[in-house]
Design goal:
Helix content of chain B: 10-25%
Order of helices and strands of chain A: HEEHHHHHHHHHEHEHH
Oligomer: heterodimer
Number of strands of chain A: 4
Structural class of chain B: alpha+beta
Largest sheet of chain B: 7 strands, antiparallel
Shape of chain A: globular
Largest interface: A-B, 39 and 38 residues
Number of helices of chain B: 7
Radius of gyration of chain B: 24 Å
């Protein structure tokens, strides 16, 4: 009798410890976390000289604990369905938080249709994220790849369960956000942590940064070839109106990103009509015919580290990219042909432009331990 | 009894105070409504319009900054600054219906009174035209347009973007053989002030609509003379050598800004 009573009691206790959650599944009642000290340390982000200010949402201030949690989530494949893909799978430290694939494989080897984008200085972006700008904040952007079937192929409710059960993450969520129970670990908080980490991914030590924005007096930072390339890049006519012009800065200006964050048809796809783009880009989002084939002008900071190029990775080298623009590309009604037109650059001009692009490369952030994989 | 007296004194003192920062002049509201036009017709992007040369022209982007938007006082009514800076981008003018809807900025707390007109500067004054704009709050138009409109090589904003294509060979079809143009004037040299005389009665409880038109045709066609877009030198204003053209275009805002 005692045994039966004991078993019944156990069963009652077991059921009492469970509750039916809103998603229809049965999950263990959360764990109280209030015994863990919540005392987040505000993180003062250092903006290098010359760079603009960064807009930090008031509801997601940077803290050391939030950034560290974000770093771990960024490198942890726990966010993917089969624990094979993390954010860092497509956004690698040494590729300016990009990768070297035209199209990156997701869970199960499924391929997407667009190239991954560099995350360096991503916190300075103010005009939409992704190639089509469909997310306006890093907090929103971070939610998308998890449930994309050709990326992480997971569902957030399952990720939340994994994070709530994880022996380390529940503590880190408490320390970062002050939650009192593991049930409060949500996708929104995970996205906030990821966004915090991404805002710290700052690079500003290219040779051109030093010369142009940091006013480094070293006369040898930029070679004569690179300086000529700079003039072509910015259409800067020093010698006269017949100087070569690359029209690059119309879409790729700005100190932090070398991107004007504009959406353009950059004339890489030959189409009969604006309806015929295989990837409509911004047009798929807005429904405007004239937005078809438009993509965000990406950052050219560290562009030498992020081949292949364009939203579909069609160009393997920067030489190919320059050759494309030099030829004028493929006309469509929404190409701004004032800039995207035959450039008539000489071989020297092209080499100069290439050299200047190399001067936008900064690899000093490689050694920043705060950016590196915490699990290695 | 003495205590009661002091309490009363304190109460009287407190009630005798008022916040003297509160405006004593009654105020009302003004809307600044801007439409874009081409020779009086709504400017529809990607639509072909007739150019004086007989060829056609089509616009893909049209936007500009205005600054120091001021109502000019009359009589005892002093001048009133509505806004230091605004950015108008007609990117949504993709069909006639959209082009007929103005872009509106609303200004509250405009002192009631009679104004004789207004002044608008087309462009950005030197005090605001610098890279410090990147550190402004996200709501500021200069901050919002910093990435797309700040030209690092000049250290200046682009004050106006007018981009499109001119049917160079006159065949009525736009294609690669035609002439793209991209006019991006900037720097203080192209800042132009426009003053218009117009009775503006700001009355209590009523919103005054200041309806303006930015006629891009009149930027390109002034006193019957049209910019020759067949000339390649007239299709861009990005270089310092293009400054005379940039100045010329921006100086036409006097005519291009219509009431």
């Amino acid at each position: 009798m005692k045994k039966i009573s004991f078993v019944i009691l156990l069963l009652i206790l077991g059921f009492a410890a469970c509750k039916d959650d809103d998603d229809g599944g049965v999950t263990v009642i959360g764990e109280d976390l209030t015994n863990i000290i919540y005392d987040p340390t505000p993180h003062n982000l250092t903006i290098p000289p010359g760079l603009p200010s960064m807009d930090i949402p008031v509801d997601n201030p940077l803290t050391d604990q939030g950034i560290e949690l974000g770093r771990r989530l960024f490198y942890d494949p726990i966010l993917s369905k089969d624990s094979t893909i993390s954010c860092s799978s497509c956004h690698k430290l040494t590729n300016s938080f990009n990768d070297v694939m035209a199209i990156s494989p997701g869970v199960g080897g499924f391929m997407g249709n667009r190239s991954s984008m560099s995350l360096i200085n991503v916190g300075f972006q103010i005009n939409g994220l992704f190639w089509d700008g469909r997310s306006m904040t890093l907090e929103d952007q971070a939610l998308h790849p998890v449930e994309n079937p050709v990326e992480m192929a997971e569902i957030w409710t399952d990720v939340e369960v994994k994070l709530r059960r994880h022996p380390d993450y529940k503590t880190r969520f408490r320390e970062a956000f002050g939650i009192e129970n593991t049930t409060e670990i949500t996708k929104e908080l995970a996205a906030k942590a990821l966004a915090q980490f991404e805002r710290t991914l700052i690079s500003a030590n290219s040779r051109y940064d030093k010369k142009a924005w940091q006013k480094d007096p070293n006369p040898f930072l930029i070679s004569d070839l690179e300086a000529d390339g700079q003039k072509i890049y910015y259409d800067d006519q020093q010698a006269g109106p017949n100087d070569p012009k690359g029209h690059c800065a119309h879409c790729h200006d700005g100190k932090a990103l070398y991107s004007s964050e504009v959406y353009r048809n950059n004339a890489i796809t030959e189409v009969a009509t604006l309806n015929d783009f295989p990837d409509k880009g911004l047009g798929a989002l807005t429904g405007n015919l004239t937005d078809n084939g438009m993509f965000k002008s990406p950052t050219l900071r560290n562009i030498t580290l992020t081949a292949p190029y364009m939203h579909d990775g069609r160009f393997q080298t920067l030489e190919e990219v320059i050759e494309h623009y030099n030829a004028g590309g493929h006309y469509a009604d929404n190409v701004i042909t004032g800039s995207i037109t035959q450039l008539n650059l000489s071989e020297y001009d092209k080499q100069a432009l290439l050299a200047f692009l190399d001067a936008l490369t900064d690899t000093t952030y490689y050694s920043n331990p705060a950016f590196q994989n915490p699990f290695q | 009894m003495k205590k009661l007296f002091f309490l009363c004194l304190m109460a009287v003192s407190i009630f005798a105070c008022k916040d003297d920062n509160q405006p004593t002049t009654p105020t009302s509201s003004v809307n600044l409504n801007f439409k874009a036009a081409y020779n009086g017709d709504p400017l529809v992007l990607y639509k072909a319009f007739d150019y004086p040369s007989g060829n056609q022209i089509r616009f893909q982007n049209f936007n500009f900054f205005v600054s120091n938007i001021t109502l000019l006082g009359e009589g005892s009514t002093p001048d009133h600054l509505l806004s230091e800076i605004e950015f108008f981008d007609f990117e949504d003018n993709l069909d006639l219906a959209a082009a007929q809807v103005p872009l509106t900025r609303n200004y509250e707390k405009v002192p009631i009174g009679n104004y004789r007109g207004f002044r608008i500067d087309f462009g950005i004054p030197a005090s605001m035209n610098n890279a410090d704009a990147a550190k402004l709050p996200p709501s500021n138009p200069l901050r919002q347009a910093f990435a797309s409109h700040f030209w690092s090589d000049w250290g200046s904003f682009i004050f106006m973007k007018s981009e499109g294509i001119y049917d160079l060979n006159g065949d009525g079809v736009f294609n690669q053989s035609d002439a793209g143009f991209e006019h991006h004037p900037g720097t203080e040299a192209v800042l132009f002030s426009v003053t218009k005389q117009l009775p503006i009665a700001v009355e209590k409880g009523q919103v005054f609509d200041l309806n303006l038109e930015a006629d891009v045709y009149k930027i390109y066609v002034n006193n019957g003379a049209a910019l020759d877009l067949a000339n390649p030198d007239n299709r861009n204003t990005q270089e310092l050598s293009d400054m005379p053209l940039a100045v010329d275009l921006m100086s036409h805002w006097e005519q291009a800004c219509g009431i």
